[in-house]
Specification:
- The structure is a single chain.
- By secondary structure, this protein is mostly helical.
- Helix content is about 75%, strand content about 0%.
- The protein is built from twelve helices and two strands.
- A two-stranded antiparallel ribbon has the order 1-2.
- It is globular, with a radius of gyration of 20 Å.
- Keywords: Membrane, Transmembrane, Transmembrane helix.
């Protein structure tokens, strides 16, 4: 009878918790596929209804086009690991699965931390944001943590100096720079391009920085991938998401939704900086072998990175 007294939102949260517990018992491959699919669907809906979503998630905040664009950037960052996994879901490389897992754990973990802090500090977020954004984020952190403990986070111990690895290192460096800028100094970027930065702007910048830091785990661990195609899939996902991000910016500019300001140009430049090296990697290496090591040795993340 107690269930009859719950409102629909509470029932949905209860179902989400039950589903998260179920995912904890599934294989990692299944969990990553489910998460990637849900991320793509949720991201598409968010892009289509960005303003409506922001209005429902906040109280007393005037939503502007910069808010909407920052949400679109968040979707692009969320889609990068998701698309990488969907392209590499048939791989037999344990390192690839671990990379996606770590990427999601870092991204969702930092996002949850920032959400909790800003909820307490700003007081501009609604109950719907807690139920449909914060709670799912925390549940994914729980699921990914359980999966990491179950699988042990095994990755290859071999790293070779190759053309693709050099591009992945560049991609890693750029992602870390953008992530650090968004997390540490979200207001500086806005002031630098002559844009007023309100609390919600700064919050969205930090969320994007958290997801960018999570996405940076892919090129960091991706240099240890056994198959060349899995490495290239990281760059393919980067090209696809950055192209979509750039198209949204250009279309918004042409339709007059995005003003011709330094801020708009900075967003375009950021997409291009991320996309061009990835595009080079996607087009390079034709005819080369797709596998580097037939039987690579593996170790846990702690064993490898704990020595650095």
């Amino acid at each position: 009878m107690a269930l009859l007294n719950l409102d629909p939102d509470q029932l949905r949260v209860g179902l989400a918790i039950a589903f998260a517990c179920f995912l904890c018992t599934c294989k990692l491959r299944t969990v990553l596929t489910v998460e990637a699919t849900l991320s793509i669907v949720e991201g598409t809906c968010t892009v289509l209804f960005a303003k409506d979503v922001l209005q429902r998630y906040t109280t007393g905040v005037s939503i502007d086009v910069q808010h909407e664009y920052l949400v679109t950037a968040r979707v692009a960052l969320l889609a990068m690991p998701a698309l990488t996994w969907l392209l590499s879901s048939i791989t037999t490389d344990t390192t690839c699965r671990t990379a996606i897992l770590v990427s999601r754990l870092v991204g969702y973990g930092l996002t949850a931390v920032f959400m909790i802090i800003e909820h307490w500090r700003l007081g501009i977020f609604s109950r719907m944001h807690v139920l449909y954004s914060l709670v799912p984020c925390c549940l994914w952190v729980f699921v990914m943590t359980v999966q990491l403990l179950r699988t042990g986070g095994r990755v290859s111990t071999s790293v070779r100096t190759t053309e693709l690895n050099q591009l992945l290192k560049y991609d890693l460096t750029v992602m870390l720079v953008f992530a650090a800028a968004d997390i540490i100094a979200p207001r500086f970027f806005g002031h630098f391009v002559g844009r007023t930065v309100e609390p919600l702007h700064a919050f969205l910048h930090r969320i994007n920085g958290a997801l960018a830091l999570g996405a940076a785990a892919l090129p960091a661990i991706g240099q240890r991938f056994m198959y060349r195609r899995d490495k290239r899939n990281i760059l393919v996902a980067r090209v696809v998401t950055c192209t979509g991000w750039l198209l949204v910016t250009v279309v918004g500019y042409q339709r007059g939704r995005l003003p011709a300001t330094d801020s708009t140009l900075a967003f375009m430049a950021q997409s291009i900086i991320l996309m061009i090296p990835a595009l080079i990697g996607c087009l390079s290496g034709a005819g080369r072998p797709v596998i580097y090591l037939p039987n690579p040795k593996h170790a846990s993340l702690h064993e490898i990175f704990g020595k650095m």
